[in-house]
Structure formats: structure tokens, C-alpha cells
Amino acid sequence: MRIPFNKPYMTGKELHYIAEAHANGHLAGEGSFTKQCHAWLEASTGAHKALLTHSCTAALEMAAMLIGIEPGDEVIMPAYTFVSTANAFVLRGAVPVFVDIRADTLNIDETKIAAAITPRTKAIVPVHYAGVACEMDTIMAIARRHRLWVVEDAAQAVMSTYKGRALGSIGDLGAYSFHETKNIISGEGGALLVNHPDLVARAEIIREKGTNRSQFFRGQVDKYTWVDIGSSYLPGEIIAAFLWAQIGEADAITRRRTALWDTYHQGLAGLAEAGLIERPRIPEECGYNAHLYYILLPDVERRSALIEALKQHDIYAVFHYIPLHTAPAGLSYGRADYALPITDNIAGRLLRLPLWLGLEAHQAAVIGRIIDALAG
Ligand SMILES: *Cc1c(COP(=O)(O)O)cnc(C)c1O
Predict the structure, then answer these.
(1) Domain co-membership, 265 together with 174
(2) Residue 376's pLDDT is what?
(3) Where are the N6-(pyridoxal phosphate)lysine modifications (predicted)?
(4) Same domain, 120 and 199
(5) 28 in a domain, yes or no?
(6) Ligand 1, atom 2, residue with closest C-alpha
(7) C-beta of residue 3 within 8 angstroms of C-beta of residue 366
(8) How far is the CA of 142 from the centre of ligand 1 (A)?
(9) Distance between CA 346 and CA 366 in Å, rounded?
(10) Strand extents, DSSP E, the chain
């Protein structure tokens, strides 16, 4: 039996709600399913305003426009992240300034942020890697002191918290992903959380192609027209209907993922005690969505050997990011003022294990194969 790295989970209600959207006859964005998703996101995160987008990438692009990024502005972020974290700002002419990550959470090292700030710095973009929270109190304090915006890349962090607060709702803006590799999915999809009340009106305009269409539909203006820059960032109702089915099971999905995560953590404890791997560390203040389970091998050779050994048994474990400061576009558009030793080191050693609903029946075999390969 093939054990893929990811297998999108369907609740079984997706087609039911899609049929309902179809019957409603409203297929463009901002229909009843979109509004229900917005209401749930706002209620569950405490965000001032939630807006569905085509993707987390789109939400990050909106964020870059909203905070007024201009050519030459600098944006501080980790290099151990997905390309969209940087691209969204590069598209507005900004320079990503990469700083190193912490060895425990693999999140941006908050103690290294201050040294990266220059007169051109406009924002900090913490990325909650694996759905584990960055040290947000410290990051927010630095941002307030230097008058910088904070845009949370919470793509992996739906249902995760920091000191009881939803990730994505703490910075000025937060971006979620509902891509099929994430916990709660709509195929492609995302949301922008607007936590700063002053940004809401313009967020709606940017999302509606630079028009005041949202105000028009609420009867606040008597015609709608082009008022600002913007693009088409809202998904249609079919996507929102799919997402609504997933939202209905968000707690159950998180519980089942957490159980799978715990099973890996216990099953691999012996390897960690023997010094053959390191396991993830979740700080006390982080409520965790179990987005992914990774292990750290001693070096890239042993990681490649384990990937191969598992593949022999049709089990697919995968590494993660090529750090952005070493990627071709990162070298031309971004900058790292200091060495990033932890980023460089982790990138070669990290391995993500299969984690999807339905893996329960096969997980003992996966753990057994890993133990055989490393300690057999
Ligand atoms: C998945 C991901 C994204 C992009 O999400 P999309 O919805 O595919 O655009 C951005 N940042 C991080 C950290 C991600 O994991």
C-alpha cells in the first residue's frame, strides 16, 4: 500500500454545499457561503475582518498593498519559508531582508530582528512554521517601538494559538492558506485577516479590483467606481461552499491530526533518546494545530538515506524549503546582512513525515520502518 506524504481529506459534505451554491445561482464571490466563512473566521479568530482570497499568496499580496509597500522598502522575514512570503513584497518593489531562525521552533529568531532594522524597514513578517507560533509578544513590541507593520504568514497556522490568541489575529494583518496541503482546505484558497480597523475599508477595495463595490452593495455609496489600486482576489462561491464543509469539521480535523502527531512523537521517542533524531519542540504558550510532523536527522546524507529506505516501502517522506537567501530569486531580490547558520543547517536535516486523516491504519508501519532504517 502506497503511503503518500499528503492526502487531501474530504468531509463528505463538500458536494452537498457545492450543489446548494449551484442551486442558489450565485457563483461569483461574496455570496452566502463566502459570508458564512467570513463570519466563522471572525468569530473563531477575533479578527476585526476576514476576507476570503484565492490563496494565502493573494492575501500576502493584498497585505503588501495595504501597508503601502514602495520600491526600496525593506521587509524582515525568515529565509526558511515558502516563496510567497517574499514574492508578495518583491512584487511591490520591496527588498526581503532575511534573518535566521530559532533552533527549537524553526521560526524567525526574535532576538535577531532588531539588528536587521534600517531606516528603510517597513514591516516584519513572522512565519508560523509548521503551525507553531512565533514569539509574538517580543515581535509586536519590537514593531511598535520601531513603528513597523506586522504581517503574519499564518498559512500553516489555522486553528493554532499563542497565549490563547489565534495566529493570524495578532499582527496588523494575517494570511491563511486553504491549499490542499494544509489542515482545512478548499483546493486552492486563503484568507486575509484584517486586525487593524483602519485597514478594513481599503482591504475591501483592493480585493474588488480597486473599486468601492463592497460599499456599493451595502448601500453606502450610490455607484461603484475605480478608487484605488487593486486586483481580483475574491474566490467564487463554489470554493467557499467547499471550504464551508471543511470549517464544519475544523475541530474534529484538528483533534485527529493531533492524535497522529502524538503517535509519531511517542513512537519516535526511543530514536530521540538514542540521539539518532531530534523531534519537534512546541513551547508551552503555543496551542498547536498539528499541521506537520518533522524529524531532524544528523546530516543530509542520513536524511537522503532515510528518504530512500522509506521509498523502498512505498512511504513518501519529504524535505522542505530551499532557504530563500540561497535561491536564485532570493539572491537577486533579497538580502541577508548576517550569516544564517541555523537556517542552513536545518534545511539539510529536516524531514516531514506523512500526516493525513486516514493514516491511522498505517502509522504503526511507518514508525516501524523508520526505526528499522535508523536503528535496525
Ligand atoms: C502554503 C504556504 C503559503 C502559500 O499558500 P497558498 O495558499 O498556496 O498561496 C505561504 N506561506 C507559507 C508559509 C505556506 O506554508
Answers:
(1) no
(2) 80
(3) 182
(4) yes
(5) yes
(6) 155
(7) yes
(8) 25
(9) 23
(10) 49-53, 74-78, 95-99, 121-124, 149-153, 161-162, 165-166, 173-177, 190-194, 286-287, 293-296, 350-353
**Stated pTM of the model:** 0.98
**Separation of 315 CA from ligand 1 center, angstroms?**
24
Note whether 246 and 253 are within 8 A (CB).
Answer: yes
Domain count for the chain, please give it: 2
Ligand 1 site, CB within 6 A: 55-57, 81-82, 84-85, 127, 153, 155-156, 177, 179, 190
Q: Which segments of the chain does DSSP mark as H helices, in order?
A: 14-24, 32-45, 56-66, 83-90, 136-146, 200-207, 213-217, 237-247, 250-267, 269-273, 300-312, 328-333, 341-347, 363-375
Residues in the chain: 376
Q: What CATH number does residue 119 fall under? A: 3.40.640.10
In a domain, 8, yes or no: no
Same domain, 267 and 241: no
Indicate the average pLDDT of the chain.
97
CA of 337 relative to ligand 1 center, distance in Å: 25
Q: Which of 57, 87, 177, 321 to mutate to test the pocket of ligand 1 (most atoms within 8 A of CB)?
A: 177
User: Nearest to residue 251, comparing CAs of 177, 162, 159, 360?
Assistant: 159
Contact by Cβ (8 Å): 46, 119 = no
Q: Is the same domain home to 171 and 270? A: no
Q: Is 7 a catalytic residue?
A: no
What is the grid cell recorded at 326?
540561497
The amino acid that residue 191 corresponds to is A
pLDDT for the residue numbered 167: 98
Active-site option among 7, 182, 209, 223: 182
Distance 323 CA to ligand 1 centre (A): 15
Please report whether residue 74 resides in a domain.
Answer: yes
The domain boundary, picked from 225, 247, 269, lies at 247
DSSP H stretches of helix in 55-193: 56-66, 83-90, 136-146
Give the position, in ligand 1's atom list, of the atom nearest the Cα of 182.
Answer: 1
User: 376: buried, middle or exposed (CB in 10 Å: 19+, 13-18, 0-12)?
Assistant: exposed
Task: Check whether 314 has a pLDDT greater than 90.
Answer: yes
Q: What pLDDT shows up at residue 247? A: 98
